[in-house]
Specification:
Length: 660
């Protein structure tokens, strides 16, 4: 009887806790059959929205939630979009949640029978067809400093936005008096900020009316116009922040509902009730940073103590996402003054003595509650060069490798750009630039990571669902001598005629002082000092290279990296605009090999030509076939991807008649 009473008490406690924060309603808007081929597993696509509410006490870690508007029950409400691809037969029992990147995402049938789910979390995105968004409350009456920055701008008027890819409006100012704000210009990121007198600019629109223009809280008008060769930084007192950290809770509560609930508060059935045994989350770039912050802030435990995700893949995610901040810009990209790398970066406990941040781990909270997922971290060269990932490997003093715990695997993709090749395949001329990419001096890096990722995701699912452990981690370390300073001499960079050198191409990690209201380990709270003071530059390391300039040492190289057609770089050079000659965003470059020995000698290129390496087109194809087969045997490549790669090699122009 005592055992029954204890269980009853636990159940009542779970119900009471669950009442504090959960999905209260799910609204299914469409259910449509997914297009499939004969013999394929049938799927349906479900789209809609969901509502939830949160306890300001239980979820007090969310910045400004205590100042959010309350419902009659004392809780704070939100809503978000979702989409589900659900197998109608022979499902695997795995819910695979893909975190949308700046609202972008879609679901489709999965060849392994997994349920695919996406949902909105970024509350500063405006709703739009096909976009995953969240509607979060406004903390009315709160104020604080906000920052906006722009480069390569001409004309007289600047519309205040933040982020890349899908810029969003910055918060409105408390008033329109330029004397209560500061506008700076800057010749380079290393140059001092030069104040612009308040009499020379206004919160106004000058597109049709000369300076001082028409008053407008969302725009800046500069007398004489903006110079595209300069950067401009605005610091002002903003008002009424969105409670953006609710995006973490919205993801937690939706996945928990789909895993465990029978129906919502109104009796609408859970469309996945009884179908989910395991769950895995994956996020790429910004959304991979979201995964790290989600785990760090303790959101992998739901309101009744369940583990939310059993497995996690933060992919090409170098930092945490700046979401749980007042006046946050979660869609940023590691540019000057942006927070992100200030948060905890390590999977095991590390003492950040250089920055005086104490000892922390991304897994501290989930370790305490026994809700940590199995983690497969994946990234490539550009994350070290352009997105400041080095301290996650070697700490902020760059003196020793930071170990990773048993529930973490780390796989590095040598010589790839951010996310790998945009188009993939065998290329002699480089990759096509992605839409909106900066103009770089070198061709874009065509080295892919997606085929390796496909193989690894199957390993992650197997680890979660069967306990079959994936291979040991593969990444560069200091202990093996793989990592060196980002300079030509230390890297043993070859002297390639006409090619740039890596010196000065690192996007340095700066140690910022954001003021006493900022919680550094959790990347949360309130920034009170804008722009932040720069205390120091944190040292960064990169992999050494071989005689071709290609990265060597630890990692999981692609077939293209092992059968190279040139030098594959994690860095590139900005060709024009503000910052020209420095790093080209997070794009990697490509320096092709000469086709023949004669061409190589005429150029003075120390790297062997394609002819010297492979002899003929048939020799190149044979090498690709051999290496691809080896990667399949090792588990780093799927057979279908290997066959596709060999077919591309056969169809390529490498050492074929008419090639360069």
């Amino acid at each position: 009887m005592r055992r029954i009473c204890l269980l009853g008490g636990a159940a009542l406690l779970a119900l009471a806790t669950g009442a504090q924060a959960r999905v209260t309603a799910i609204h299914i808007e469409t259910r449509t059959p997914a297009p499939t081929k004969p013999g394929e597993r049938p799927y349906e696509i479900i789209t809609g929205t969901f509502d939830g509410d949160l306890s300001p006490t239980r979820d007090a870690i969310i910045t400004d939630i205590a100042q959010g508007p309350r419902q009659a029950n004392g809780r704070v409400a939100y809503s978000a979009t979702f989409a589900i691809a659900r197998p109608l037969a022979r499902g695997s029992g795995v819910l695979f949640y893909d975190v949308p990147n700046r609202g972008n995402g879609k679901v489709a049938p999965d060849e392994d029978g997994h349920i695919r789910v996406i949902s909105g979390w970024q509350g500063d995105l405006a709703p739009a067809p096909g976009l995953q968004t969240a509607t979060v409350p406004v903390a009315k009456g709160l104020t604080g400093p906000a920052l906006a920055r722009v480069t390569d701008l001409s004309g007289s008027t600047w519309g205040l936005t933040g982020g890349i890819g899908r810029p969003v409006p910055r918060p409105l100012p408390v008033d329109l008096d330029p004397a209560h704000a500061r506008l700076y210009r800057q010749a380079s990121d290393a140059a001092p900020l030069e104040p612009i007198a308040p009499s020379q600019w206004a919160f106004a629109d000058c597109r049709t009316t000369p300076f001082p223009g028409t008053p407008d809280p969302a725009r800046i008008c500069l007398k004489g116009g903006f110079d595209p060769a300069l950067a401009y930084t605005l610091v002002y007192q903003a008002r009424d922040p969105l409670v953006l950290g609710i995006g973490f809770a919205a993801t937690r509560d939706l996945v928990s509902f789909l895993r465990h609930a029978a129906a919502d508060d109104h009796g609408t059935p859970n469309p996945l009730a009884g179908q989910v045994r395991w769950s895995v989350v994956s996020g790429t770039s910004q959304s991979g940073n979201f995964v790290k912050s989600f785990i760090n802030l303790g959101f992998n435990q739901d309101e009744v103590g369940h583990r939310v995700f059993d497995g996690a893949n933060p992919n090409i995610a170098a930092r945490q996402v700046p979401l749980n901040l007042r006046f946050a810009v979660p869609g940023g990209a590691a540019t000057l003054f942006e927070p992100g790398s200030e948060g905890t970066l390590w999977w095991s406990r590390y003492a950040d003595r250089v920055r005086g941040r104490g000892t922390h781990s991304l897994l501290d909270r989930c370790t305490a509650t026994q809700t940590c997922p199995k983690i497969m971290e994946t990234f490539g060269s550009t994350e070290l060069w352009g997105l400041r990932l080095s301290p996650a490997l070697v700490g902020t003093d760059a003196r020793a490798d930071v170990p990773i715990p048993a529930n973490v695997r780390r796989y590095y993709f040598p010589g790839v750009t951010h996310g790998g090749s945009y188009t993939g395949g065998i290329s002699l001329d480089g990759d096509k630039p992605w839409p909106g990419a900066p103009v770089c001096a070198l061709p874009n890096n065509p080295n892919p990571s997606l085929p390796t990722m496909r193989a690894l995701m199957k390993r992650l699912v197997a680890w979660v669902s069967t306990g079959r452990a994936p291979p040991p981690s593969q990444y560069p370390t200091l202990a093996r001598g793989d990592l060196v300073p980002p300079h030509a001499a230390a890297m043993h960079w070859p002297a390639i005629p006409g090619a740039p050198v890596p010196d000065g191409k690192m996007n340095d990690l700066l140690d910022y002082d954001y003021g006493p209201g900022f919680d550094y380990p959790d990347l949360s709270g309130v920034i009170t000092q804008q722009p932040p003071a720069i205390r120091r530059t944190i040292p960064s390391l990169v992999p050494r290279v071989d005689r071709d300039g290609n990265e060597t040492g630890g990692g999981v190289p692609s077939v293209q990296h092992l059968v190279p057609l040139g030098t594959y770089l994690g860095w590139n050079v900005l060709a024009k605009g503000y910052g020209a000659g420095g790093p080209c965003g997070f794009a990697g470059g490509f320096i092709p090999f000469a086709a023949t020995k004669a061409e190589r000698l005429a150029k003075g290129d120390p790297r062997l030509s394609l002819e010297e390496r492979y002899g003929s087109h048939a020799g190149f194809v044979a090498r690709v076939r051999s290496v691809a087969a080896q990667r399949v045997r090792q588990g780093w490549l799927l057979p279908d991807d290997a066959a596709h790669l060999v077919a591309e090699a056969e169809a390529s122009a490498v050492l074929s008649s008419g090639s360069r």
